[in-house]
Amino acid sequence: MTVEAQSPLIRKLSTFVALSEAELAVLARLHRRRRTFVAGRDMVHQGQSGQLAYILSSGWVCSYKIQPDGTRQIVDFQVPGDFLGLRSVLLRTSDHSFEPIVDIEAAEVLTDDLLEAFAQTPRLATAILWAASRDEAMVVEHLVGIGRRDADARMAHFLLELGSRLALVGIGSKEGFDCPLTQYHLADTLGLSAVHVNRVLRQLRESGLVTFRDGHVTFHDYGGLVELAEFDSAYLDQSGPLLK
Amino acid sequence: MTVEAQSPLIRKLSTFVALSEAELAVLARLHRRRRTFVAGRDMVHQGQSGQLAYILSSGWVCSYKIQPDGTRQIVDFQVPGDFLGLRSVLLRTSDHSFEPIVDIEAAEVLTDDLLEAFAQTPRLATAILWAASRDEAMVVEHLVGIGRRDADARMAHFLLELGSRLALVGIGSKEGFDCPLTQYHLADTLGLSAVHVNRVLRQLRESGLVTFRDGHVTFHDYGGLVELAEFDSAYLDQSGPLLK
């Protein structure tokens, strides 16, 4: 199997830049230290220092902050091809925690290896910064969602975003995608109660738009859901290579 | 006047890295194209492509997204020393808008100049990425604030964050800071109505914690406000140079 086929990150970055052999080789080296992590045990704790970054190759991870009163706000989910903790590498302590939702496989990336890769291939650095920019654009969308969208539109937007992200790495489509999230993950992401999450999902199902059941999201009326969420995927910026 | 004295960005980056003469010279070149912008007119529109980045040297800017229904969510404010649109340079279209709150002065930075500066001085690149990481950590905190903090704690946290950021560039302290924001800015930032903002500010004032009046924020009881907001400034990561 080629590295390209093994690495969702390479697939994702290829959306932004047509990678050369040399750049692919540097990326392959970043994937050297492969590790597995079990579901439910934090990989990185909020406040931890000296942490590493990871490239997620299979499974889902959630990043979250715990408030002093014990409530949890999920900031984002990482899916195959995403970096974990890329940002935290540069801050002295991690500003949030990462927890695998299922058993995952990820490559550990040392800060020095990353900076060396950046120095060797500025185009690759630009591509990785593009991915980081896109991650931040998602956090901004989540902020707008919690601040300004009603519960139905918020849920619809979230499921559409996940679908687009997964499609980029070949594990989702406009038909739907496999999804290991529970109603508690959805609640802590969208700022809703678990009961409210259930009600919203029932409404979306009964409106013939989308069903989330038994670990699978099925889009019944993709266009209708886009309209409800006023989903404009421009912020995901995944419509083909920018740098040739 | 030296460049250091003129540039809040240099002052801010010096928190992270002790800059060499060569690095200071590269930074000074990034400040070449100085421009002024008037209050209230967007510098960058949401959806605009081919946009530039800016280094803000004086004044305040707000970055926001307008929802299709016309409501506005303010994502963050930029104060002297901050980059504007650093992220958008790498995305094909800007995912949000930037509007000066007062007349401002900013240096226009071309993408090519930025990438060239990165290639010349990897340490400077790391310092700028640190600043970008810190900006993202703030957006995450705002997400947590809207999702999980009550209105009083949300306001207190926001004012404390602003105070810390401004102190870093020498225009704020634990006594207070000048602040050009209106109640509408606060409302669109915190996901509250303007009426609610007024009520919250009155409560904080009557509790003897903080007063925001006539363009100035005065901290009466900094420790008490930190306690109310459960403010832990670690995410701002501004406690002295990391790279020597």
UniProtKB/TrEMBL annotation, chains A, B:
The keyword Transcription regulation applies. One of its GO terms (molecular function) is DNA binding. It comes from the Bacteria. PROSITE patterns: CNMP_BINDING_3, HTH_CRP_2. Residues 15-90 form the Cyclic nucleotide-binding domain. GO terms for cellular component: cytosol. Keywords: DNA-binding, Transcription, Transcription regulation. The keyword Magnesium does not apply. Residues 149-223 form the HTH crp-type domain. Pfam families: cNMP_binding, HTH_Crp_2. This is Crp/Fnr family transcriptional regulator. The lineage of its organism: Bacteria, Pseudomonadati, Pseudomonadota, Alphaproteobacteria, Rhodobacterales.
